[in-house]
TrEMBL record, chain A:
InterPro entries per record: ATP_synth_F1_ATPase_gsu, ATP_synth_F1_gsu, ATP_synth_F1_gsu_CS
Task performed by this protein: Produces ATP from ADP in the presence of a proton gradient across the membrane. The gamma chain is believed to be important in regulating ATPase activity and the flow of protons through the CF(0) complex.
Superkingdom of origin organism: Bacteria
Keywords annotated in UniProt: ATP synthesis, Cell membrane, CF(1), Hydrogen ion transport, Ion transport, Membrane, Transport
Chain segments carrying region Disordered: 230-255
Assembly information from the UniProt record: F-type ATPases have 2 components, CF(1) - the catalytic core - and CF(0) - the membrane proton channel. CF(1) has five subunits: alpha(3), beta(3), gamma(1), delta(1), epsilon(1). CF(0) has three main subunits: a, b and c.
This protein's GO CC annotations: plasma membrane; proton-transporting ATP synthase complex
Protein name: ATP synthase gamma chain
UniProtKB/TrEMBL annotation, chain B:
Coiled-coil ranges from the UniProt annotation: 99-126
InterPro entries in UniProt: ATP_synth_F1_dsu/esu, ATP_synth_F1_dsu/esu_N, ATPsynth_dsu/esu_N
UniProt keyword annotations, A-Z: ATP synthesis, Cell membrane, CF(1), Coiled coil, Hydrogen ion transport, Ion transport, Membrane, Transport
Gene Ontology CC annotation, any one: plasma membrane
Record protein name field: ATP synthase epsilon chain
PANTHER family linked to this entry: ATP SYNTHASE DELTA/EPSILON CHAIN (PTHR13822), ATP SYNTHASE EPSILON CHAIN, CHLOROPLASTIC (PTHR13822:SF10)
Keyword hit for Cell cycle: no
Function comment: Produces ATP from ADP in the presence of a proton gradient across the membrane.
Compartments, record wording: Cell membrane; Endomembrane system
Lineage summary: Bacteria, Pseudomonadati, Myxococcota, Polyangia, Nannocystales
GO molecular function, one term: ATP binding
Family: Belongs to the ATPase epsilon chain family.
Domain ATP synthase F1 complex delta/epsilon subunit N-terminal, residue spans: 34-98
Amino acid sequence: MANLKEIRNRIGTVKSTRKITSAMSRIAAARLRRAQTAMENARQYGVRMAAIVGEILRELDDPAAMHPMLRGAGGPAPATHLVMPGTPTKPGAVGFIVVTSERGLCGGFNSAVNRQVQREIKALREQGRDVHVLTVGRKGRAYLKTYGQVALAHHVAPTKSEEVVDTAKRVAFEAMALFAGTFTPEGAAADTSDEAGEPKPTVKVDEVRLVFNYFRNVITQEVRADRLLPVPIPESDESGDPSKDQAKAGDGQPRAAVTNAIRAFEPDTKQLLDHLLPVAVETAIQQALYNSVAAEVAARRTAMDSATDNATELIGELTLQYNRERQAAITSELMEIIGGAEALKS
Amino acid sequence: MAELLQLDILTPDGRVDLRLVEGGKPGSDQGPIEVEGVELPAALGEMGVRPRHIPFLTPVVPGVVRFRFNGDDRRLAVGSGFLEVSEAGVVTILTERALRSWEVELEATRSDHEEVTRELQEHAKASIQDATVLELNARRAWLDAQLRAAQG
């Protein structure tokens, strides 16, 4: 009977799908612990770095004047900045760093980021501002391309913690170049560098935002869109961060109190900022990547877990249907035989 | 016993286990160690920190961190980062990477160093602000630090 065979085939298909999803879920579970540890280790470093950066930035009287990477951080940006000749950008352009994954099958992980970016891009375009995008992870680039936003530069999403540091370094370098107006898009560089005297077209943005999945816990990832450049100045010590600091201080070390105590620093503020701000940017990207890696694995585990559950449920339903059909077939066959026998008798 | 200070080295990979001895197995995270003092490469030159240092903050450049722990002279290659001395006397070195002296792969590092030096010579005429030159210089500084840590 054709129908029975169809159902049997379907059960087979669902079973092999379940094998795959359950294997993926187990792999993700095994990777999750490693990714989570890496992220927590990195967070410790990130929190301390953020504390130092915050402490110094808060004590500046006029941050915008102190360093180009703080320009526009507090209050309106001064209108005079050097724009390279040939810069096609209007003022007010915004750059995005979009962090997604290389592979799918991880629930709403990538689409959440993509939707968020699309929403922001749409709002900015309506204001008549230019948008530039740097992507980390194939999924974000592919999505934005269909949306008509080609990435200026692309990086493969890291999966191991050793790769995170290197990728973060390169992305940070590009983000800072973009902000400083010295960024040369990959394709354009090769085209125009031969023509002597012709300045390479550069792209400049007045703000860089970082969009990534923040790993809240194993079942919750949330999309964050943080301003990366100009380096944001944290409000005050007492507001939000101490709680986060305290949570991390549970390792029994006498915590260096994050206070406003006057601290000596060397060399002067300007040079300190020269060193500090690039590191701050790099650390922020690093943290985002670590979070994204852990969040991806967690999202994949959750997604594959529920896919496995769904498959099991479906197999149950199909098996029930199969048995019912089979019984119906047997019954009707019996009826035919009995009917035939009765006909012969009479 | 002389007064001691607490030393802690943090990298994006987590806290560096300073108790670890050569050939030993990494143990659980036990927090900062207590040492009599530490030498490190600050932006303005090599500096030493002893107990009761004032609260202090300065950039760290790639180089070698030296301290004595359990009667052993220890050396670590560190990348660029920061030194923070807190009021409580905790010395924290935040650095992008750190390698213990015995973890340096001497042969590979040496050949990398030669290669980077050669590349730098090829770029000798480029501007000092050139992105490639900056990157090569940064790489060489880190390789230098590793070699110095490994060779004492």
